[in-house]
Structure formats: structure tokens, C-alpha cells
TrEMBL record:
InterPro entries recorded: 2Fe-2S_ferredoxin-like_sf, 2Fe-2S_ferredoxin-type, Beta-grasp_dom_sf
Protein source organism: hydrothermal vent metagenome
Protein name stated in the entry: Ferredoxin
Gene Ontology molecular-function annotations: iron-sulfur cluster binding
Residues of the 2Fe-2S ferredoxin-type domain: 2-110
CDD domains, sorted: fer2
Length: 119
């Protein structure tokens, strides 16, 4: 069975193959949302991108991004800038299916001034 390691929370959980990253985070007691989204939970349809996570290791062990996920990540300015140069690593947890072992960082910040932003 694949494992998800939540780096910030120092938690590791085993999940069935094809499991939804957002649902498994909730089951493990991991806070997926940031800021006002902690109160205004999205239903998990991929439209708000508030559950974005940074896949630190194992980005090839998740299902490829759908056009729906790419569209909403592009449309949301905060998610768009957070993804620059990390298109494969920054994912919406609600749209991510786990197929193997991964390590994720919840609530990744936006680097407005460093190499990642301009490079």
C-alpha cells in the first residue's frame, strides 16, 4: 500500500492505491486549508484551489493533472504564482490520486521574491 508522509505535521499514513489526497489528509487529522478557507470549506470539486499541496517527493507517484485542475490553478492568481516553476509539484489535494509513496507539504507559501518566482 502507498504511504503519504505529511512533512509539516510529521505524520505518515498508509492509503489504498488511487486514494484521494484531500480525503486521506482529513482522515489523518491534517489541516488542509489555510486562512479563511479553514472555515469556508470547499466541497472538493477543484474550483477554489485552497487545498493546494507541494509534493516534495514522489510527484511521479500521483495521477497526472487533469485539464480541470490545470484550468483552475491557472485561473486563481495565488495558485498560479505559487506554481511557477513547480507545475508538477503544486497540486490541488482534492484532485490528486495517490498511486505510490509520496511526501507532501501542506499549505505551501508563495515565494514572491526568490529564484523560484522569477526563474
Amino acid at each position: 500500500m502507498p504511504t503519504i508522509k505529511f512533512v509539516n505535521e510529521k505524520k505518515t499514513v498508509e492509503v489504498p492505491e488511487g486514494a484521494n489526497l484531500r480525503e486521506e489528509a482529513f482522515k489523518a487529522g491534517v489541516e488542509v486549508y489555510w486562512g479563511p478557507h479553514k472555515v469556508l470549506h470547499c466541497p472538493g470539486l477543484g474550483t477554489c484551489t485552497s487545498c493546494k499541496m507541494n509534493i516534495v517527493k514522489g510527484e511521479d507517484n500521483v495521477a497526472p493533472q487533469s485539464m480541470w485542475e490545470k484550468f483552475w490553478m491557472f485561473l486563481n492568481p495565488l495558485s498560479f504564482f505559487a506554481r511557477l516553476g513547480q507545475e508538477k509539484q503544486i497540486r490541488s489535494a482534492c484532485q490528486t490520486k495517490v498511486q505510490g509513496d509520496i511526501e507532501v507539504e501542506t499549505q505551501p507559501g508563495v515565494n514572491w521574491h526568490g529564484e523560484r518566482f522569477w526563474g
